[in-house]
Amino acid sequence: MADILTPALGESVTEATIAKWTKKVGDAVKKDELLVELETDKVSLEVVAPADGVLGAINVAEGDTVVPGTVLGSVTEGGAAAAPAAAPAKAAKGEAKAAAAAAASSIDITVPVMGESVAEGSMGKWLKKSGEAVKKDELLVEIETDKVAVEVSAPADGVLTIAADEGATVTPGQKIGSVSGSGAAAAAPAAAPAPAAAPANSGSAQVSKNETLSPAVQRVVAENNLDPKAISATGPKGNITKGDAIAAIGAAAAAPAPAAAPSAPRALAPREERVKMTRLRQTIARRLKESQNTAAQLTTFNEVDMTNVMALRNQYKEVFEKRHGVKLGFMSFFTKAVVAALKEIPAVNAEIDGTDIIYKNHYDIGVAVGTDKGLVVPVLRDADTLSLAGIEKGIGALGKAARDGALTMDQLQGGTFTITNGGTYGSLMSTPILNAPQSGILGMHNIVQRPMAINGEVKIRPMMYLALSYDHRIVDGKEAVTFLVRIKELLEDPQRALLDL
């Protein structure tokens, strides 16, 4: 029997949380096959099987906290699953030969690498069923990650066998199916006997909460002013895990009833349905809430008279489109104005890293795009070097890729400032949430004809409200207001940009 041990976790990392077991007790495993994933404050770690055999025991459950050297479970070496009931010798030999032939001619379908920092994804809907014929490079399924959708195609002509169901969580390199190269459907294997019931987790015995907190938990508790007594512990021996502390952030201070059982999901009414959140939607929810909890967010407003920009656009939009092959929109004017204002107020183009401020000398502008699957923010690189036509072409290409689910990881990372245009949906006013770790986001809104006092006379003008949300830890109110006024000036008098005024 070989023990499965928690590996060294790295410098200054003293504990980890069990994220997921990929096998169950009684399952056959191979040496170096992934068995369990661990999460620490900094990285995710994989623990593999120490030998061939059968997973004999799981000593710690998902969500438990462990330290280096902890015995996570054990593998019984050479303990292959019991053979099925004896069948006639000739039939057994024939089935063995058929299985061997099928295995030799089948090609595994595995999860591709999904991008830097993406450790897992969720299976989408299979476009084919098990037993159906497929052709090489034919799209079979999409795997949805936190940021992008990854397409998986057939590796060869043949017949599909599915090994991972829709909605299952998968990791790069994991087998999700196979294609038999013979082109004929393989006979379904006989059902294996039910594995023995997993032994009860010895760590779930009656224990009391341990008030001694680990360093990682202490940090979360201190940074969020949590009361350890009000946190429900799920770790071994009643310990509070880092996951418990994170789950308690924002919860009511009053401790729950000690004997209260975990609340069941809310019952659905006759005209309701329950749908699992997509990974993208879960990521949007998590990142936006993290942004609110981390930054000192404040929003300042102004309004801009769009008369001159609209007149300039109407005068040149037809010749602009003929010359550059792209329509002249408002986003290019706003991007140019934002870049000019960022150069004047560099704090809005910076970010906080611990006790340091990182000032960015490049201008990579994130453009919020709404898609059927949720909000994404692709990045327009080096916007300060682009012409109006270059900006329009770049934004158009990013928007199309976002709607088609074809954005790459590189296109979604590294922005220094974000622009979001709620006006396309009719929004009159909003308070945008920062796209962390950025320190500023500009909200554009609907253009509305309103009466304005111009040189002592009331005139009807096309007006737009602007909203700048900023991190007050790094951007002062004076800087934020100056930044927004600068954008207003450049839009109301576009000639200023030509003269660098």
Describe, in plain words, how this protein is organized in 3D.
This protein is of the alpha+beta class. Helix content is 24%, strand content 27%. It has helices at 89-105, 215-223, 242-248, 279-294, 307-324, 330-344, 388-404, 477-492, 495-499; strands at 2-5, 16-21, 28-29, 34-39, 44-48, 53-58, 65-66, 71-77, 106-110, 121-123, 133-134, 139-144, 149-153, 158-162, 169-170, 175-180, 297-305, 350-353, 356-359, 365-367, 369-371, 374-376, 379-380, 417-421, 440-444, 447-454, 457-471. The strands form seven sheets. Strands 17, 20, 23, 24, 25, 26 and 27 form a seven-stranded mixed beta sheet that branches. A four-stranded antiparallel beta sheet has the order 1-8-6-3, with no helix packed on it. A hairpin with a 2-residue loop joins β21 (369-371) and β22. α6 (330-344) packs across α8 (477-492). The longest helix is centred in the middle third of the chain and has 18 residues, at 307-324. The radius of gyration is 29 Å and the shape is globular. The termini are far apart. Residues 80-89, 183-211 and 252-257 have low confidence and may be disordered.
